[in-house]
Amino acid sequence: MNYTEIHTDGILTTFVKYFWRYEHSGEDVEYTILPDGCFDLVVDFENNVLQNIYLTGIWTKPIKTTVTKGTTLLAVRFKIIASEYLLKIGIKLILNSMTILPKDYWNIDSAKSTEFEKFAYNLSKLMVSILNHQPEIDNRKLKLFYLIYSEKYHNVNELSEKVAWSRRQINRYFNQQFGFPLKTLLNIVRCNASYPNIVKGQLYPELEYTDQAHYIKEIKKYTDNSPKQLYKNENDRFLQLSAFELD
Fold first, then answer.
1. pLDDT, tens digit, for every residue of 136-166?
2. Any idea what DSSP says for residue 76?
3. 125 three-class SS
4. Which residues of 127-156 are buried (b: 16+ CB within 10 A; e: fewer)?
5. Rounded distance between C-alpha atoms, residue 212 and residue 195, angstroms
6. Which helix (H) or strand (E) holds 101?
7. Of 63, 76, 188, 189, which has the highest C-beta tally within 10 A?
8. pLDDT of residue 245
């Protein structure tokens, strides 16, 4: 597996988690994508020829996908606030699924599979321009998503108090924009934060789970696997866990 990430800085860190590139030269392989609280814009090349541009929804359950021989993927992993302020779309309708975008979306059709740094640079420049021309962004949302992705807060009431935004209004926004309540995202982000420890063989809770039973139950809820099964990662089928092993 040839996998690389480029992380953002400045204003983009609020909206983009990182850019990633994956190259697969072996035989066709099936992977399981685990929920991580983000969504992706994926550019699919086969033998260096652009095939499609996909926009995924947010995964709230594991999704199986097959990668064929000769595939190279360039992608942007977005924090979900980006759907409103960068892509300016509601992604509720593609929850746990994906849609195909036009090949000239954001001028991506000029990208080459071998030019990952250029791809990240060009899209970063474009996205900064979009944000600079954006009407005022709701500071409550900026603060809320900053706290969510800090992975330090798992309680809806606590977040509501910190951003001075009622729980009812937050959940209305989440259900309208994303198709699930805030608590679901908090649970997924907490689950995702456990993956690096699981890769290291630390199969016990460290992130405000009530106890071991609660930890196992929550991990299985969003991955369909126990922490022990994830740790084994048989045949490297959990792509994100294999990527952590490369760090």
1. 899 999 999 999 999 888 899 999 999 999 9
2. E
3. helix
4. bbeebeeeeeeeeebebbbebbbeeebbeb
5. 15
6. strand 98-101
7. 76
8. 66
Residue type, 218: E
What is the Cβ-side half-sphere exposure of residue 233, based on CA atoms within 13 angstroms?
A: 20
Q: Give the residue from 106, 132, 158 where a domain finishes.
A: 132
CA dihedral 146, 243, 123, 139 (to 10 degrees): -10
CB of 190 within 8 A of CB of 159? no
- Our CA angle for 187, 193, 194, nearest 5°, is 95
Whole-prediction pTM: 0.93
pLDDT by residue (tens digit) across 124-140? Answer: 999 999 999 988 899 99
Q: Are residues 109 and 153 in the same domain?
A: no
Q: Are residues 85 and 143 in the same domain?
A: no
Q: How confident is the model at residue 99 (pLDDT cuts 50, 70, 90)?
A: very high
Closest C-alpha to 57, from 16, 30, 97: 97
Task: Report the alpha-carbon distance of residue 31 to residue 38 in Å, rounded.
Answer: 18
Please count the structural domains in the chain: 2
Cα–Cα distance, 12 to 44 (Å, whole number): 23
- How large is the average pLDDT for residues 177-193? 95
